[in-house]
Amino acid sequence: MGILAANIVAFGQPMTAYMWPDGFLVPAGDPDDVMWAIQFVLVDGKMRGLFTLLFGAGMYLFMEKAWAKGAGRGLQARRLFWLLLFGAVHFFLIWQGDILVSYALAGFIALGCLKWRAKTQLIIGILGYISGAILALPAMAGPYLASETQFAEAMGGSETIEMLEEGKQAEIDDAMEEAALIQSGDYGGYVSHVAAQHSSNLAFYLFLAFTETIPLMLIGMALYRRGLFDGGIARGRLLTWGWIGVIAGSALTVLIAFWTIETGMTYYGTLAGFMGFSPLPRLPVIVGLAALLTAYLTAAGHFLGDRITAAGRAAFTNYLGTSIVLLPVFHGWGLGLFGELDRPQLYLVMLAVWVLILLWSKPWLERFRYGPLEWLWRCLTYGKLFPIRR
Start and end of every DUF418 domain (predicted)? Predict the structure, then answer.
């Protein structure tokens, strides 16, 4: 659900609008960029981080059961191979904002860390994340400094500014070409465009794997082993440290949001805010959210908690299912709403899908052992059919 909150703009508007409000094809409907700032502080990057944390925990949980049955890491490798194929189908045929390819690639590397001590996983994960954020800072904030500040001349002069402006225009032109294909209903043309123009995006996912995904997976493994998700840590401690992490990290992110707005919400300014300055304060928010969700929503008989837990147990189906449901909503061969909705209207679409997720997941899992795609993934991993009905 949080992933959709982060991605809804990029589902219904060009990918450039994900960070940059001027990328909208219609007026964004967001006076003074208040909604942009709220999403930036509360959602962007945090939901992907939480998803990654839980994926790492899930990897270790899966291997615990595999080891108990005498299986080894080869079983997890097969599981990741099928995830890679699911991600490739998602990326090329449904929506290029896929994250599963990155998870699969990162997961193959994280396999070698499964038997580390929990303390080692936690320390390496935290240090790896901090190092990745520092490493990414020049690449993500440098273009802003080199093109839109008083340091531009010193950092490369007019040639660098011109090159960066050409890069920005190329991204805008590509977004317009893709938008035209989606709006026209030319699905084959859209798929061809993604394959021809965006296959190189997979290289960015590999970069993201080393700077963010693998470290967060390791942290997720360690926190799972230390009892974060199953009552091994007292609820009072979860609440205390959860709120400290969320408040401290969010306060710093608010300052970054104000700075980004003050710079005029420029193309490279929003890139610097999103990808350059926010990763470090994002980490305590991610871990804090995991602690707070565990403390508040896992109580037995809690109506909303039960439904969110069910949605999480069918997370794979809900993640890919969201993209499948929204494909006919926005493409021209369906309702054709791509580029037509402003930010508030896109949030209404998001809320409708949230309701759908909460309505179907719990009744389904009361009748079936797994979500539909979870069942298929399990069958492919083990190479046999499992019973799905309870």
Answer: 223-384
